[in-house]
Amino acid sequence: MSTGFNQFPPPLHRQAGKEWPALLFALLGIALAGALTIVALVWFLRPPASHSAARPTPAATDPNAPVVATSLYLGADDFVVDIFHNGHRVPDEARKMTSEVYGAIGERTTITVREGDWLVFNVVNNRLRWSGAYYFGVAGADDENTAVFASEVSDQWSACEDPGDVPRFIAEPRYLADRPVQQIEKPWSGGDKMIHSKVKGWAGYAIWGSPTNRNIWLKYQVRPAK
């Protein structure tokens, strides 16, 4: 005879479909975590941006255009970081420092400059040195070391001071051509002598952009030699 002590309560019956919302949220969470992981991997593994190459790719120059100059003689206080020729950085092998005066430099760059070419110089200066003196001057010279063009305030020279504009300024010959350079009123006194000692007939002078900006890009549009 059963007393009821050995009887177990009837099992609880779950309502069908109650577990699906929780499962769905779990799957969505896993999918979202996977997507975020992929985005993070793509971001951290991306190749580093290059600041030395101009974009977009510049147009090719005419290899048959007349040669204007075969050397550049520069004076800079403090120094020229990079030189670009038709949108491409001039290799270090083509550049040689010819003098150094308390941090200011003279340089000769061996380069074939033709009609229609353009040159860009990235020049920097430490305004905390030598009471803020600064300088940039250049002479384009022929095979006889005679000056054929020079740094000056003219419509052939323009300046770029915004780093965001630099790639186009380097790559496109006419980009920001309406941004004129300025003559330096009180330049480093040794710059002109440095260039005159290397080049015959140089009649240029020191140029820059805004005096308050000491990291600047200067462009020269090459015209036919006189």
Secondary-structure map:
Elements: H1 20-44, E1 67-77, E2 79-85, E3 88-89, E4 95-101, E5 104-114, E6 118-124, E7 135-141, E8 147-150, E9 157-160, H2 166-171, E10 182-183, H3 191-196, E11 207-208, E12 215-221
Antiparallel strand pairs: 1-5, 1-7, 2-3, 2-6, 4-5, 6-12, 7-8, 9-12, 10-11
Could you list some keywords that capture this structure?
12 strands, 2 domains, 226 residues, elongated, five-stranded antiparallel β-sheet, 3 helices
Major beta sheet, specifics? 5 strands, antiparallel
Taking the alpha carbons of the first and last residues, their distance comes to 129 Å
- The helix content, as a percent range, equals 10-25%
- Strand order, biggest sheet? 4-5-1-7-8
DSSP strand count: 12
Note the beta-strand portion: 25-35%
pLDDT below 50 for ≥5 consecutive residues: which ranges?
48-58
The structural domain count equals 2
Could you say which structural class the secondary elements and strand pairing correspond to?
alpha+beta
Shape annotation: elongated
The topology string of helices and strands comes to HEEEEEEEEEHEHEE
Instruction: Summarize model confidence as the mean pLDDT.
Output: 84
Radius of gyration: 32 Å
Number of helices: 3
Q: How is this structure best described in words?
A:
By secondary structure, the chain is of the alpha+beta class. It has 2 domains: 19-48; 67-221, no CATH class. It is 16% helix and 31% strand. The chain is built from 3 helices and 12 strands; from the N terminus they run αβββββββββαβαββ. The protein has a 5-stranded antiparallel β-sheet with strand order 4-5-1-7-8. It has a 5-stranded antiparallel β-sheet with strand order 3-2-6-12-9. The chain has a two-stranded antiparallel ribbon with strand order 10-11. A hairpin with a 5-residue loop joins strand 7 (135-141) and strand 8. The longest helix is centred in the first third of the chain and has 25 residues, at 20-44. It is elongated and about 90 Å long.
